[in-house]
Amino acid sequence: MTAFDLYPTLPLHYEIKDALKFLPPLLSSPNVSALRLSFSTPLTEDHFFQLRDILHQNDVALILDIGENKSPSIPPYIYKSLDGLHSSLAQNIQHLRKTTPENIQLGCFCHTRDEAMQAGESGADYISFGLNNLDLIKWWGSVMELPTVAEAITSTKDAINAKTAQADFLSFALEFDGKDTDKLSHILSAT
């Protein structure tokens, strides 16, 4: 891993043609290691496989954001292709760890130290914090071994702040508006 890896997130709603157009140049960056897809995003099986193929061609992990869902009904064709699940509730991690194969990474968005510690003790493989919690990111990185994700990076300044706080991954939202490559460049300039 370089100083930090990048973890873009897909918009909740998008056209698959936009994903097929804009993702390849973004995912070809060696710093991009994972991509988060919302469980709520409506995708046909064919569109899902097109997306998965782009990720595999670029050696980028596919993480499914299940939000607060404790027992999501993930279609088998998606489940077999997943590299990880991302939850927004620490109390769901223990159940997910028991019901999810060990090769599936589990991540959790946390607001507090207690939530992060609960998620870590329950089997999370990484913890994510909002960018407004830089002190929490720094504390976590100084005392815990689980990697941290700084969420909602939008600028070089955000990336520098997250890097200074010792975040391992920087997450940023894709918008497929033609400006994502510039956003990626600004974030990478923090290295």
Quick structural overview:
With 191 residues, the protein is of the alpha/beta class.
Number of strands: 8
Distance between the termini: 12 Å
Q: What is the number of helical segments per DSSP (H or I, 4+ residues)?
A: 8
Beta-strand content bin: 15-25%
How many domains in all?
1
Report on the architecture of this protein.
With 191 residues, the chain is of the alpha/beta class. The chain has helices at 16-27, 45-57, 76-79, 93-99, 113-121, 134-143, 156-164, 180-188, and strands at residues 5-9, 34-38, 61-67, 84-87, 105-109, 126-130, 148-151, 169-173. It has one domain: TIM Barrel. It is built from 8 helices and 8 strands. Helix 7 links the parallel strand 7 (148-151) and strand 8. It starts with a strand and ends with a helix. The mean pLDDT is 94.
List the helices and strands and how they pair.
Blueprint lengths: L4 E5 L6 H12 L6 E5 L6 H13 L3 E7 L8 H4 L4 E4 L5 H7 L5 E5 L3 H9 L4 E5 L3 H10 L4 E4 L4 H9 L4 E5 L6 H9 L3
Parallel strand pairs: 1-8, 2-3, 3-4, 4-5, 5-6, 6-7, 7-8
Helix pairs in contact: 1-2, 7-8
Features:
ThiamineP_synth_TenI, ThiamineP_synth_sf, 8 strands, Aldolase_TIM, Thiamine phosphate synthase, about 190 residues, TIM Barrel
